[in-house]
Design a protein that fits this description.
The protein has 404 residues and is α/β, with parallel strands linked by helices. The protein has helices spanning 26-37, 56-59, 65-72, 99-118, 148-160, 177-182, 231-249, 275-288, 305-316, 327-330, 373-394, and strands at 4-7, 46-49, 124-127, 166-170, 189-196, 220-225, 253-257, 292-295. The N and C termini lie far apart (41 Å).
Length: 404
Amino acid sequence: MPTAALSYTPRFKEYDLGRSHPMRPSRVLRTYDLIRACGLLEPPSVSLHEPSQADEDTLALIHSPDYIAAVRAPAEGRSFSRPFRFGLGTVDTPITEGLYEAAALIVGASVQAADLVADGQASVAFNPAGGLHHAHRARAAGFCVFNDAAIAIAHLLRRTGDGVRIAYLDIDAHHGDGVQEAFYSRRDVLTISLHESGRYLYPSTGEVEEIGDGEGEGFSVNLPLSPYTNDYSYLWAFREAIIPMLEAFQPDFVVTQLGVDTHYSDPLTHMCLTTQGYLSVVQEIASRFPRWIALGGGGYNVETVPRAWTLAFAAMAGMEPPERIPKSQARRYRSLVPAPCPGQPEGAGEQNEADAPEQLPCLHDTAVPVVDEDWARVAREFAEETVEAVKSRLFPYHGLSAPT
């Protein structure tokens, strides 16, 4: 059984971009509550760690001094001109109280997760507040202030020295542009992003042709997919194009961004995955890569994200979660219709009211999205064409045979 660590603090609630902002800190707090209620923190093979705020030297592994100073300025009572040039004060990344400290704390948690794995204290460590993959060297973007994923990778490279190979896998519905940018000219970091095509979704990047530059040519991988891509097409593309390159790269560490906004219920995207499809990707990683730093990411349905991340953490820890959401947490998921959980016989959820546990909502989805046949066909063909393009363009860099 793998040893698993969870990096968590209630202070994650301080990364609060406003009451109407979709990036609600409750997604992370509810994830912790559900993980704990499901008993996933009880085994001796699982440990809980409280992170501390990253220092400026750590932030500077990726971000420019001017940008760090700009983010810190409000906390020090200083004003600065033209915050928009740093991507601050926008609808996506407003300047809120305690923003610097909250963002640096998330970085600290991701660096802690990296250290736990690098030191051998855990085979996998999860920071559900992390995965802020859109932040650039000198600019906030897409709800992200500091790029904790890129910083964690840079930290691993700094502490482990030459010869270490790190694979970054991003399954958020949005392209992992900030992490790609940070390592675009390096070949010791393989960045991979599966995402809804930038033709339809922010940040409008992540085409197959973005393959890296200079020494890093061939080590930036993008697999854009069509809206309405379902579990079958997504998993087929992942296994056909991505798994071979990950295995050929033979990373010493894998860092993943596990955004859940590919889910069919997400209000900001157009993908059609279920928790079952999402979990299958996580299980593919868990079965292959023993040194794994897992980060959260997007996902804006507060009933979906905690369930998906709880299922993911159970897979990380090699545990079977309960089929039903524990009673202590069920009220938060009351809109989920009680129904037979996946794998249960028909009628298993049809208990009388006195049998309360059987009336609890399921951890997994009990419904599947209904997609128009034409859109489903378009999504499948889009995936097939993209996989063919990825194989043709990128497989030769990794000693793999390209399609003829």
